[in-house]
Write a structure and sequence with these properties.
Layout (H helix, E strand, L loop, with lengths): L3 E7 L6 E7 L2 E5 L1 E4 L11 H6 L5 E4 H6 L3 H6 L2 H6 L5 E4 L2 H5 L5 E3 L4 E4 L6 E4 L1 H11 L3 E3 L11 H21 L7 E6 L5 H12 L5 E4 L8 H11 L9 E3 L5 H9 L4 E4 L1 H7 L2 E4 L2 E4 L19 H5 L2 H9 L3 H27 L3 H12 L4
Parallel strand pairs: 4-14, 5-6, 6-10, 10-11, 11-12, 12-13, 13-14
Antiparallel strand pairs: 1-2, 2-3, 7-8, 8-9, 15-16
Helix pairs in contact: 6-7, 7-8, 8-9, 10-14, 10-15, 11-14, 13-14, 14-15
């Protein structure tokens, strides 16, 4: 398989595990957080800056790249790696979340999903087979199967039907996936917030014998304790020798909670999105840098942070940039937030190695202001 997982160590006291994920474009230390580059770019960041903050792998979006500029153009450019000049691993999602979030603009059938572009209203039709064709053109190391991400809350009857269709679509994806020498296909466990459906989905997805497995359909509005319950009931039914990916999760508490429960990979737009709005993560909790009380604050965003932003600029200066709409403000807050999360992941990995992840969690939560 072009992507394989090596388990290095399991925590004595939790389900957490330390590992390495081998891909055609490099090795990833896990647990890992993947910055999201929706449109073949992590907003406000250059490839070199992503490397400087410690990004091992980034994620791009199949739906958005299909709509613009088109997967065939990207294929002509040498795939995403050549198109965006990124020589480290890439994961592409299937576009399922974006398609299903269109609501009244889409129609679901057993064959696939008809939807209208959010840009110009043109009609398109995604089938599992076509999604595999698109993702193979994009050329990511890891590609995701086409699935349905149901909303929360949703009736159990519909969630079950959707989950069963997702399994059928996965089998079609596996059959259609041709570039098995360079790309690895991951399946996605669904089932909403229903434990029995999650377990059934996990078993049926694992039966497809894939290089890795994702847990989807969480962090969509449900309480965090329910999300953690769904992770706990799912992980025991996933193989130990394959990577486990929790989709769409990126707050520090969820990264720690997910790692405690045996998750290896995470992604989310959260750190870059809130950065552009002037909110930053620090070791003492979130800080809204645009607030007036930072106008004469000449300290760095976080005195414990080693990022370019914190080494060179003050809260007062960054607040000035954000308030005046200067592009540099969004760049500096984005650099900080992404570096902050990479440092959180480094801390998690060291804590697993030292068998003290629970203590790491308790100390982090106390300083950040989270309830345990």
């Amino acid at each position: 398989m072009p992507v394989r997982y090596e388990l290095i160590k399991e925590c004595k006291h939790t389900g957490a595990r330390l590992g390495k994920l081998y891909t055609p474009h490099g090795v990833i230390d896990t647990p890992a957080f993947m910055p999201v580059g929706t449109q073949a770019t992590v907003k406000a960041m250059s490839p070199d800056e992503l490397k400087d903050i410690g990004a091992q792998i980034i994620l791009s979006n199949t739906y958005h790249l299909f709509i613009r500029p088109g997967h065939k153009l990207i294929e002509e450019a040498g795939g995403l790696h050549g198109f965006m000049n990124w020589d480290r691993p890439i994961l592409t999602d299937s576009g399922g979340f974006q398609v299903f979030s269109l609501n009244e603009l889409r129609k679901i059938t057993e064959e696939g999903v008809e939807f209208k572009s959010h840009l110009d209203g043109t009609k398109h039709f995604f089938t599992p087979e076509y999604v595999m064709e698109i993702e193979e053109s994009l050329g990511a190391d890891i590609i995701m199967a086409f699935d349905e991400c149901v909303s929360y809350p949703e009736e159990k009857e519909y969630v079950q039907k959707s989950m069963e269709r997702t399994v059928r679509w996965l089998k079609r994806c596996k059959k259609a996936h041709k570039n098995i020498e360079e790309q690895s296909l991951f399946g996605i466990v669904q089932g909403g917030v229903f434990e029995d459906l999650r377990i059934e989905s996990a078993k049926k997805t694992v039966d497809c014998d894939l290089p890795g497995y994702a847990i989807g359909g969480l962090s969509v509005g449900e309480p965090k304790n329910i999300m953690n319950d769904m992770i706990e009931c799912t992980v025991p039914h996933l193989p130990k020798d394959k990577p486990r990916y929790l989709m769409g999760v990126g707050s520090p508490d969820s990264l720690i909670d997910g790692s405690l429960r045996g998750i290896d990979m995470f992604d989310c737009v959260l750190p870059t999105r809130i950065a552009r709005n002037g909110t930053v993560m620090t070791s003492q909790g979130k800080l809204v840098i645009r607030n007036a009380n930072y106008a004469e604050d000449f300290r760095p965003i976080d005195e414990e942070c080693d990022c370019y932003t914190c080494k060179n600029f003050s809260r007062a200066y960054i607040r000035h940039l954000i308030k005046t709409g200067e592009i540099l403000g969004a760049r500096l807050t984005t650099i900080h937030n992404l570096r902050f999360l990479q440092n959180v992941m480094k801390g998690i990995r060291k804590a697993i190695l030292d068998d003290n992840l629970i203590s790491f969690r308790d100390d982090f939560f106390e300083k950040y202001g989270y309830d345990k």
